[in-house]
Amino acid sequence: MFKTKWAYFFLAVSAAVFLYFLFAVNNGPSLGFDRYFSKFFTGLFSENTHPFFEVMDTLGNKIGVGIMTLVFLLFLWFKYRNYEAMAAIVFAVALGNEINKWLKEAIGRPRPDQEHLVDVSSLSFPSGHAMIGMILYTIIAYFIINELKSGSAKWLTAIIAGIWILLMGISRIVMGVHYPSDIAAGFAAGYIWVFISIALYAVLRSMFRRSSYQRESA
């Protein structure tokens, strides 16, 4: 999944997207991209959908991410005893969260000046829900896909993960707490961090396997 040319292509696209919105936000508070997609998503989803998006929003906050991370760590422990994967997930999510907070403070973009349907206290750019959601659920999908044998099952898992992550990002726009550019930049930064984290995981797993093989051969 992350050894293909597509992975590097999406890495390049993610870097370009993040840098574009970073410069755009620093050069002006109002973006046509934000005006268009804010109107689009708030018009597309009526008030009847708000309870659903509140649930999606909750799955991306600290409690939701903590619970989902713990559940998947227990799954990796009981099912596969994959300690390297467990370490990779903790590293990716915990450090990714710190990077997101640092970016927010460094960029300093205020939240949208409109009614917020959920409580928020931090700054706006990039979206923590989008970034951490991308990190956590992409890595979960990555490890699940690695264990699947069926090609169709792999694709189905990837599609479900993609829709799940997208809905988490949209929830922040519908709830009125993020600009669409915050979400796009959050997804982009999240993918970059996923790529780095999985590359580090692959290196560590290769080192541990080589070390284990050498001990068994001695």
Largest sheet: none
Q: Classify the helix fraction into a percent range.
A: over 70%
The DSSP helix count reads 8
Distance between the termini: 34 Å
Number of strands: 0
Mean pLDDT score, rounded? Answer: 89
Shape: globular
3D architecture notes:
It is a single chain. With about 220 residues, the chain is mainly alpha-helical. The protein has helices at about 5-25, 30-45, 50-60, 60-80, 85-105, 130-145, 150-175, 180-215. Helix 6 (about 130-145) runs parallel beside helix 8 (about 180-215). The longest helix has about 40 residues, at about 180-215. The relative contact order is 0.17. The model has no long low-confidence stretch (mean pLDDT about 90).
List the helices and strands and how they pair.
Layout: H1 5-27, H2 32-44, H3 50-58, H4 62-80, H5 83-107, H6 128-147, H7 151-174, H8 180-217
Helix pairs in contact: 1-8, 3-7, 4-5, 5-6, 5-8, 6-7, 6-8, 7-8
Which key features would you list for this structure?
mainly alpha, 78% helix, globular
Describe the structure concisely for a colleague.
By secondary structure, the chain is mostly helical. The protein has helices at 5-27, 32-44, 50-58, 62-80, 83-107, 128-147, 151-174, 180-217. It is globular.
